[in-house]
Amino acid sequence: MQGSANTQSVPKQRKVLKKISSATVAEQNLAYVKGRMDGTIKSMVTKFPRLDNYLMGGLELDTILCISALSGAGKSTLSKCIRDSLSKLNTDVEFNQYIFNFEMVAHQQAARSIVSNADISLKKLYSVDEPLTDMEFKGLQAYYDELKGRKGVWFIETPGTATEIADSLREYYLKECKPHGKTLVYEIDHALLTKGRQGATEKDRIDELMYALVEVKKQIAADGGHSIGIVLSQMNREIRKPERVQNAEMHRPNTGDLFGASSIEQCCDYVLFSHIPAKLNIQKYTLNNYPTRMKIENRWVQVPYFELVKQRSGESDLTIHIWNNLHRFYFDEMDKDLFQDLLNVSYK
Question: How many H helices and E strands in the chain?
C-alpha cells in the first residue's frame, strides 16, 4: 500500500507552451520590415512575373504553397517550374530541395527535365516510334550532366506517414541546411498518398500531414532558418458537377474544390490551381468568356489558366492565361497583348 501511495504522489509532468511578449513580436516584425526595405530580406521570385507581382514580389520565405489540378492538368509540371526557377533566379540564396515522390518514380522526374531542356518529346526520348540514333543519344549527355550537377536536390521515394515526413524534414534542416545557411525547399507529390495510421480516412491523412507541416515551418522559423513548402493536392469532384460546368459564375476553382479542403486551406499560405477548363468540355471560361481552346498554327490547343485563390499576405482571385507546353513539361505566362489578339481568332 505504501508503494502505491508513493507512486500516486509523483507529480505529473506538464508541457507548458513557450510565450513571447508583444515587445518581442513587434521587434521581430520591425526587423522584417527593415530587411525588406534594405533588400536583405526579399521574396523568392519564380519564372511567372505576373504571379510574382500579385504576390509580395514572389513566394515569401516560411510559407507553404498548395498546387492543385485535375488529373493531367499540370500540377507536377507547375511545381517543377517553380522549384527550378527558385534556384535559377534567386542566386543569392542557397537551397536544398527535398522531393517526396510518392506518385512518380524519381527517374521519371529526370526524364521530364530532359524533355523540357532538350525540347524533344517523351516518346522520342524513350525511343517509342524509332530508336534514338547514337548521335541523338550523345547529344543528350549535356542535359544529363546538367542534372547531375544540381547540388542539394534529393528525392525521397518511400511513402511515409505525416510524422515520418515531418521528422525527416527536421533532420534534413538540422543536419544539411542549418549548418550551411541553406533554405529548405520541399515538395510532397501528392498529399493523398501520405501513409496513415490504421483506420485513418483519406481526409485524416491529409489533415495530419498539413498540421505536421505547419509545425515544421514554425519550428524552422523559430530557429532562425527558412523553408518553402510545396504540397500537391488532388481536386475533388465538385468542379465536374453539371451546374458548375453550365454556370459561368461557377467555373473558377475555389478552395472548396480541394480534396481535404479544410486543413489545406487553413494551413497553406497560398493555394494555386493549374486549371484546363477544356477538360470539362467548357467552351467559354467564366463571365469573361475566355477561350478554352485556341487555334495556333492550324492546330487547336487547350488553354491552361493559373488560378490563385488564396494568399495569406494579400489579395487572391488572380487568373493568369498560360501557354500550354505540357507536352514538354513546362509552363510560360502568355503575354497579355498576344492573348487579346488570340481571343479575336478563337473558334473562327
Answer: 13, 13
